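Worked example 2:
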Amino acid sequence: MINPAAAGSRRGYAGRDAGADGVADEEAADQAEQFDRHIRGMVDEALNVSTWTDGERMSDLEERLEREVRAATQYESEKTGRVLQLIEENIGDNPEASKESGIVPVTVDQISDTLRSVLFNGLVEACDGTRVSYDTLPISVIQIGLCMTTYLDDGAPTSVGHRLYRHDMVRRHDNAEEELLAFLKQRARASNPDENGEVAGISDMLVRAIMEHGERYLLTERSRKPWRMGHGLPYPYEMMTGSGSGKIIELSLGLLPKLLGDHKRFVFVPSETGDRAIRTIANALQPLQYAVLTNTKYIIDAYLRGSYRGKYADFKPMLFDFRDDIASKVLVGVYKASRFSPGHVFFAHEDHVHEAALIAMADSALQEHRGFPNLIDIADRLCKATFDPSGIAANVNAVFAAQGEPFRYLLERGTRA
């Protein structure tokens, strides 16, 4: 996930202006330089392969490993209280903060009541998807599966799947040489990026974008439950930038406002985030605590800076409208469901952010060690059971074998003992 401290204005989660305090600014620059020097030193040391440890002596490194982990953990723990204090004292000064922003404690009774009256009463429906690709020289087969379920289904869980097939077959020519040249050009085109940095064919990003669109389509158009629970960002990078397909951007800008702007009762929880600042805040929380931070305009701003050039430039004005109308009302928050689990990020509409936080926390409390929504995990397991990922490779290889070519198209790593 993109860092709002870096991607939005020059203000971070705590709302303090980075340019307002010259001393803090200089100290931050000094720390950044020290960090950069440390990284450069580690890289230089790693590149000197002659200093590496012999394989049979790797156990000699265990003492340092323990020392490093212990010191890092202690340092992290020492910062925890100060992180929360900083957020609590300054979040209101952030121009992207909401009237709902702040740190909120939750009681065990609230968790129990949410489980009993909302989740176990079947008022929340979660959706998750799975994808698998099997790539060979003659053909690549891609399978996408989606499942949507609740704790109290009125019938069978919703499950839909689709397969895509990529091959380099070209229109037949009377001239065999021209046909062969066209075939080779098509295969080369599928391997080399064009002037926009895109590769012809079906990339993994494109497959992910299709899957993410499908998940949000089911939550928007097929779910009849009051609350919708999604996995990942509400507007993922792959979807919003199209991943090589303008059609996906067009569909996303038509679909997402229905769920995020009209329906409003949703909560999205990503498995992880690359934003180490927000992870720090999440892990600093006490058990059964959540914090509402800022709106999510910073996510769309980051997309706008890095995408929508060339043939996608016409989408830019629509993305600005989406940012101002939708992302400005979708808030990012963090929560911690138990003392054993890490903190997690969630996204919800400003009008229902506290209800959404309770739903995410209550469902996550069912898994103390993970602290992640159980209903998303159930949807994930349904997907993997319904759309067996191992079946694609087995079926393709069976056809190769029937054609008398059981090994010819297998990749080297696939045949290692």
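The chain has a mean pLDDT of 87. The longest strand covers residues 124-135.
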